[in-house]
Amino acid sequence: QVQLVESGGGLVQAGGSLRLSCAASGRFFSINAVGWYRQAPGKQRELVASITGSGRINYADSVKGRFTISRDNAKNTVSLQMNSLKPEDTAVYYCYFLAGSSYWGQGTQVTVSS
User: Fold this and answer.
1) For 63-92, how does the pLDDT look when each residue is reduced to its tens digit (9 = 90+)?
2) What span, in angstroms and rounded, lies between the C-alpha atoms of 39 and 48?
3) How far is CA 39 from the centre of its chain?
């Protein structure tokens, strides 16, 4: 049974920073990709950032230059450093691992106040 546990969400003022972390445990095949999605109230879930198995990194246009994704293959973790946060970044953030199947974290709330 694969589990993803997220941490690091919370409430921050606009312009502030937060760091999200996600740790995977259990047995799974080699990881093909990892990343973060988010879902704001009344909106569809959207990709925030991802790292492919070859190391290619992708960001949503709305977070480029402000967010940084990183992964630690030895520890099976993925992190998202979020700087210069804006109220429109408010959402539930979900990490995912693609390793044969797709695995999702439980979600962590990020709230940015203006």
Assistant:
1) 999 999 999 988 999 999 999 999 999 999
2) 10
3) 11
Helix, strand, coil tally for the chain in percent (to 5): 5, 55, 40
Measured at the alpha carbon of residue 64, what is the angle toward residues 22 and 40, in degrees to the nearest 5? Answer: 60
Tell me the pLDDT of the chain (114 aa) as tens digits.
Answer: 889 999 999 999 999 999 999 999 988 778 889 999 999 999 999 999 999 989 999 999 999 999 999 999 889 999 999 999 999 999 999 999 998 899 999 999 999 999
Residues 5 and 97 sit within 8 Å (Cβ to Cβ)? no
Cα distance between residue 18 and residue 21, in whole Å: 10
